[in-house]
Amino acid sequence: MSLCAENIRFSYGDHAVLKGVSFEALPGEFLSVLGPNGVGKSTLFRCLLGLLTPTEGRTLIDGRDTADMSPAEMARRIAYIPQSHAPVFNYSVEDMVLMGTTAGLGRFSSPGKVQRKLVREVMTWLGIEDLAGSGYQNISGGQRQMVLIARALAQQARILIMDEPSSSLDLGNRIRVMKTVKRLTGEGYTVIQSTHDPDQAFFYSDRILAMKDGQILACGASRDIVKDTLISELYGTEVEVYSLREDSVRVCLPAEQSETTKEEIK
Amino acid sequence: MKTNGKTRRLAPVAITLAVILVIAVFVSFLLGRYPISAGQAFGILADGILNKLGLPGRVPVTWTGTQASLLLNHRLPRIILACLVGCCLSSAGAAYQGVFQNPMAAPDILGASSGAAFGAALAILLHLGSAMVVVLAFAGSMLTVLLVVYTGNHLRGKKAVGLILAGIMIGSLVSSGTSFIKLVADPEDELPAITYWLMGSLNGTKPSDVLFAVIPMAVGIVPLFLLRWRINVLTMGDDECRTMGVNAGRLRVTVILLATLITAASVSVSGTIGWIGLVIPHFSRRLVGNNYKKLLPVSMLFGAVFLLAVDDISRNLFTTEIPIGILTSVIGVPFFLYLISGEGDRI
Known about the structure:
Chain A is α/β, with parallel strands linked by helices. Chain A has 2 domains: 1-77 and 157-222, 3-Layer(aba) Sandwich (Rossmann fold), CATH 3.40.50.300; 86-155, no CATH class. Chain A has 9 helices and 12 strands. Chain A has helices at residues 41-48, 71-75, 93-98, 113-126, 141-154, 171-186, 198-204, 222-225, 228-235, and strands spanning 3-12, 15-25, 30-34, 56-61, 64-65, 78-81, 159-163, 190-195, 207-212, 215-221, 239-244, 249-254. In chain A, a hairpin with a 2-residue loop joins strand 4 and strand 5 (64-65). The two termini of chain A are 35 Å apart. In chain A, 42% of the residues are buried. Chain B has a single domain (81-342), classed as ABC transporter involved in vitamin B12 uptake, BtuC (Orthogonal Bundle). Chain B contains 15 helices and no strands. The A-B interface holds A 46, 49-51, 70-76, 78-80, 82, 87-95, 99-100, 102-103, 105, 107-111, 133-138, 151, 155 and B 1-7, 98, 101-103, 223, 226-230, 232-233, 235-237, 239-240, 242-247, 285, 289-291, 293.
């Protein structure tokens, strides 16, 4: 499924947060929305997910306007993967993942055999089937993130929206989670993540949407975005970008006064 | 609210509770100052059922007319009502805990009970008739809950604590309203009726009381039971709930309306019986975990067993009956203290 945002504008009162954002995400694509904190990434996601109604503009999924869809219709197409959190009640991991199947159920029904089988398959595919009986509050942050991914897959949506998926995780969990996300795009899922970390965005995503002040500063292939001038402008501070491992990795560092070892990327 | 997240299967727990309920109901027929033996009780019930089916006189009569009348007109309706009220108050508590994402929510803590009491007292004061008692109880209950939720959301500090504080404040405000009604009530007829009713007792339950309460209870509890899976999704927060395809706002309002209706129906026939809506859902969470698919049926059965047992104690422990509200407080308050202490956090 492809997602297309057309000229999305949103204001809280007089304060314009989004000033006309347009982009398209294609099937199997990993798109990063990159920008400093408070630039409107979350507001953009909330508009895409139908949690906020944009003051102008619209979101299309496979050409259909999401404003015309019911919450259940939306949920079968686009899923939200929040940062790992702690709900008030300690549900078992299996119950957490089962909640993803709700959009496919009748209003008065509960998940049954079919849904439990789907949940088992999803969890096995992600390699977390052993967690099924554990309490969601009793597992680690990385495991929780995997469970939330499983829940989104159980929802059977093909577009996944991830809010800063790696920011609260340690290195090992971050790598595990992002590897899983890459596997998903390989299966044809469309993944859109928000991040404030250009290194991470470069390493994992196909395309980057750089956002500043509620507008798109630049949008394009990762290697065209993660560059000295653009990243410096995006974050409002002098940054130097270094390339490693035959340019499969780029690292952003604060600009140095002496430029002896620097190999600039034009 | 922490449990180990492990879940037990529903069927064994539910069947055990159902068996205990059936035994408790039968034992309750036999308890009381006027003796009725097990054989007689069984005979009276069998005869009563066969009579209704148009097959009179099939059971040899081993009982007196007084015994039959006592059992069918006094003990039976009282037992049914104890079960219904217990079932309603504990499922309302479980539902409130889900929609407010607050393990300490309960009908009495949210002011639903005191609001219902105020409405009912007002209806008695104005001689509006028994149907209006339920209507005003519901209106009073609903208004109080809305006021508590609104105030709780606007208090500074932790939301969970804010809701409880708002409940205590608004609840006491509403209770002083009820006291004022008692003050202006006619001490000859209205005041005794209000006082008697507010005590929270199932004493003197008539068969008509059961019929009167069962309709609003059914109207509330059947949809609540059917919607129970979705309450889980609601506890994830409004945004996540919506992205999982459930209209959070609409579901929350629906569940609050249903839970408040069954609370008001319970209060309008039994007066205010406290704590059960907090205590029973928590024990049920320990038995089967937090998934409402299992939690709600278990809370319903457990609540019915619990209130029936407490009512049996209230009418048999001493020669004068102890109002049931007193007994549920004696059990509920220590449990609440345990919950809000550090120890309870680990539940």
